[in-house]
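User: Run a structure prediction on this.
Assistant: Running it now.
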Amino acid sequence: MTVTSALIYQTYAAIREATIRTPTIQASRLSLSLGIDLHLKLENLQHTNAFKARGALAKLLTLTDAEKKAGVIACSAGNHGQGVAYHATRLGIEATIVMPEGTPFNKVKRTEDFGAIVIQHGVGFDNGVQFTLDLASREGLTFIHPFDDPVVAAGQGTIALEMLEDQPELDVIVVPVGGGGLIAGMAVAAKAVKPEVQIIGAQAAIFDAVKAQFDGTETHFAGATLAEGIAVKAPASSNVEIIKKNVTRIDTATEAEIEDAVFDLLSAEKLVVEGAPGAGLAIIKKNLDLYRGKKVGLVICGGNIDSRLLSTLILRGLVRDGRITRLTFEIDDTPGQLADISCIIGKAGANVIEVIHQRMMQSVSLKQAELDVVIEARDLGHVRGIVTTLRGEGFKVRTDSGV
């Protein structure tokens, strides 16, 4: 069996009543700031907050009664596992999910909350597959692969049908790429509806297995990525063949670019997303000239980002934008210095949120003190104006934002 448009339409008829028809909305603020017409397919609004529920349900509906009775097993970094757990429990099927050690706690808990048994093993998806297959064989469970299955890929491909029904004038659809199931299914579906539409893949630069096969170059695997949902070293060969026939190109984004894009989606569009859709926005931002004058679609494939990671990302984003900045002063250790500094900052319309005043360390002379003042400002321009005023008043000040 292979992924065909007929299989995708058949699959859509089977799953549409039990999945959410997520909206495709215009990203009005991002469109304005980037100078393109950007539309977002909000798969983060699925029951499990990720597109994976589509493919998981599609596969579960093909099981025999004996297979349903025996139960199913999946290996997943999180979203596929949640999709299998949610729909298996809903259908009365027992599910076991193997997750890598170190999987964000919220993904583990939510998978268990959906009714699955969670086993953590290995350090990544690729390391857990053989363990999962061995367990499936020993326990007589049906293995539901997250991407190397034409039925699963067909389920993911239904996203393209909805996007082009809602926005038939889309010229380009950008799709995050891990194992290739999502982009393979969507490419087949999209080309069946609108042959001239361009499909562009987005990968993390340090997990670029599909791009490497697409371009015929060496792979780059270098540690952990914020886009852990698409951190796959061994994509399905069947998916890669479909990608080579139907996808225009695969672009990559660095970790800093992905982080910046996740923050942009949160701050500009008020969307909580994980790293994979961040990679999609990141490759759009770094290639804007290719998208000008076109109607661009981006799949927001998941929103299950770890809350602690998100809180750190938000703070780093605020620092990057200059909305939170640390000012470091070398001041004379005399009364009134802090009051004068605070007065200048307050008159400039900024807010002091933290002060660290130290005189005991030997980085400054005996009659001086070092003062760290963390302020909340509008942007880097606002910070620049405050620093200029402070220096004009004779204060020696440096910032962590390079102003």
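The chain has a mean pLDDT of 93.
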